[in-house]
Amino acid sequence: MPIIQVEELIKQYDKAQTPSVKGVSFAVNEGEFFAFLGPNGAGKTTTISILTTTLAKTSGMVTIAGYDIEKEAKQVREKVGIIFQQPSLDLQLSAEENIRFHACLYGMFSYRPTFRLMSADYKNRVMELAEIVGIQDVLFKPVKKMSGGMQRKLEIIRSLMHMPSVLFLDEPTQGLDAVSRRSLWEYINNVRKEHGTTVFLTTHYIDEAEHVDKVCIINQGRIASCCPPEEMKKNLLGQELILDAEDREGLTSELSELGLFHKKEARIIVPYQDRTAQEIIAGLKTKLTVLEINQPSLEDAYVEYLNKTGGAAA
């Protein structure tokens, strides 16, 4: 059974003429790195809110780790960690106090009134995570005195304390500097490898989804595409060889003989799908002066999808 199972999910807001989410179905396997993308207003935030038990569905079936999100919401919450796009911290407490209350609420540790009195396991885990995201110097300062970026890092620590089976990341690196972004992703990838944690990602930084196992696009309340990134890139854009030669006529003649469509621009562009770049190059005898392989990124494919559908950027 997939660790996340969504079947015919519908959400109709009061007084809305049409549902925000219109019969969405998809599945996420255990240990999978899953990206959920979509333009603004597509139903992405509504779907995530339902999956994380913060919004009630109208109809449909959703289970997380085998638990029904409505009938067994408590068990679902014990299995998931969430890094929300909007902060949810108590500004009057210190950073460590926010972490401590959260960890004790989940039953991970027995509550003690000070950090010093907490168990060694708790203290070691807090300090390890604080060093990874870079807030060890402000760990015991009031949250209200921390910058927005520091508060973001604190939320990341808090969500990872109980080692969730499913980690929902809603714009997890928003507000982080480049070094912190890299450190966070290195840690999340290690957690996935060591503990088999399932990661459910939404992000404006499409490059962060480049190496996911599956990317799912929602648009106008419906699933538009759900497949591995390479398949999406191939379906939307394909790949291109960029070639040139002193004997351009000879080169284009060879390409025609090989049955390869090509365009003459500043360079000779050869789109390809059914053959590999190596096979094409091996079939050419003309001496090349330019050889480049243009492989589209996931962001290229996503932008191409939005352009074709008239969508706006997420």
UniProtKB/TrEMBL annotation:
Keywords tagged on the record: ATP-binding, Nucleotide-binding, Transport
Annotated PROSITE patterns: ABC_TRANSPORTER_1, ABC_TRANSPORTER_2
Pfam families in alphabetical order: ABC_tran
ABC transporter domain segment(s): 4-245
Any one Gene Ontology molecular-function term assigned to this protein's record: ATP hydrolysis activity
Recorded family membership: Belongs to the ABC transporter superfamily.
Record protein name field: ABC-type multidrug transport system, ATPase component
Natural source organism: Desulfosporosinus youngiae DSM 17734
